[in-house]
Amino acid sequence: YYLENNKIWVNNLNKYRNLVFFYLLYQTGARPVELLSLKLSSFNNNRTEFTIISAKWLGKSRKFEIPYKIQEFIRLYIQETAAIDRSRELDDYFFLWAKRGRCWSYNWARILCNRLSKALEDKITMYAFRRYAISLLFELGISIPEIMHVAGHTRQSTTHRYINGTSKMTSKAVDALMKALNNPGSLGASQ
Q1: In whole angstroms, what is the distance from residue 7 CA to residue 187 CA?
Q2: Does this model's pTM top 0.85?
Q3: What are residue 43's DSSP bridge partners?
């Protein structure tokens, strides 16, 4: 509720873009750069699932189902982007910056996390979501090879670092964001 109904958004395009981005980070544990690289063609026709081309596994991909709530945000976001005059080279990028038709950058996503951290008085990073999702899969009893596939890891040692590296700080950061999603407030404007 907090992120869905506060003044962090300059307009509906920003609102839905940011919600989709954070929810997908939280739900998939994908690398932020992988989500920022999504294209419209990464989604199936009815937008119930999407494919990530791995940032580290060249030529490999991972499919994710999209929870219903996020499907609705995606639909609203695409509706908002329909009026944007996209430049040719960015014609297919999913995450756009403001109404200028340029792709949203890692830097702007980081700035948004910093503003969120400041408003919640807790450090929140994009990678906290990845660590949390990977740790949660392990706690739910998912096998290491399956977690490696979801995370896009090629080595078990990397996956174990994410699982063993889980700390109260990661849980605290994700808890703070989930609190933000459910409580009213204001974070200021964002691109």
Answers
A1: 6
A2: no
A3: 50
